[in-house]
Design a protein that fits this description.
elongated; mainly alpha; single chain; two-stranded antiparallel sheet
């Protein structure tokens, strides 16, 4: 245990950063106080920091790359360990960030699409070729077979959980989907509103009819 010289609270040694010059090898101020101190300094000296970065951009970039390459294994293992320990925290943080910056993200995506139309078309064609190659490979066939088996199992389980009337409605929905396809000459699919892969049920309340194009665009989102 050690007392922080800033907040005067006794804390575990793990709450203090490393420092070779001290007897116990730890800093005198705890990590929380150090962070607050650093944040306050950055806010006070924002212009100075920005000016320094602009004048030394290449130097900083080279140092960062050199440090990353030198400690790549250590950095990756440390990052993985943090992600595994804080999975829920990271998910919540990302979700919060997306919600807070929803309009900004949409704007950025639209700008990117408008400025990179040819590149996006090119990437789509590459991805289509990759997908076709993957599907025709032994691994791709195995993955698809497992996925289809899983879907069938969920549907069968759903049929047992549903009432007879609900199963009858599902059957009618599939027949109506076939009718729409033949009448309009446009391929239609029965889609799960909440995908089976994300916990959705094979139940009439979770089914809808979409064109094949709309269903493929929707993918496994909801």
């Amino acid at each position: 245990m050690k007392i922080c010289t800033e907040c005067k609270i006794e804390k575990d040694l793990e709450d203090f950063g490393k420092h070779k010059a001290t007897k116990d090898g730890k800093r005198t101020k705890c990590k929380v106080c150090r962070r607050l101190e650093d944040k306050e300094y950055r806010l006070k000296n924002k212009n100075v920091s920005e000016l320094y970065y602009e004048l030394n951009k290449d130097k900083i970039s080279n140092q960062s790359k050199s440090n990353y390459l030198k400690n790549k294994t250590k950095i990756l293992s440390k990052n993985k360990l943090y992600r595994d320990k804080n999975e829920d925290k990271i998910k919540k943080s990302r979700k919060k960030s997306r919600l807070e910056n929803e309009d900004k993200i949409k704007k950025q995506k639209k700008e990117y699409r408008d400025n990179n139309k040819e590149r996006i078309k090119e990437l789509r064609q590459i991805n289509i070729k990759k997908t076709k190659l993957h599907r025709s490979s032994d691994r791709g066939k195995s993955v698809r077979a497992k996925a289809e088996a899983k879907r069938r199992a969920i549907k069968i389980l759903g049929a047992f959980e549903n009432t007879n009337h609900e199963n009858y409605l599902i059957e009618c929905l599939y027949k109506f989907c076939q009718f729409k396809t033949s009448e309009t000459e446009i391929q239609h699919h029965v889609d799960h509103i909440k995908p089976l892969s994300k916990g959705g049920k094979h139940n009439p309340s979770n089914l809808q009819i979409l064109t094949a194009e709309a269903n493929l665009q929707k993918s496994n989102t909801y």
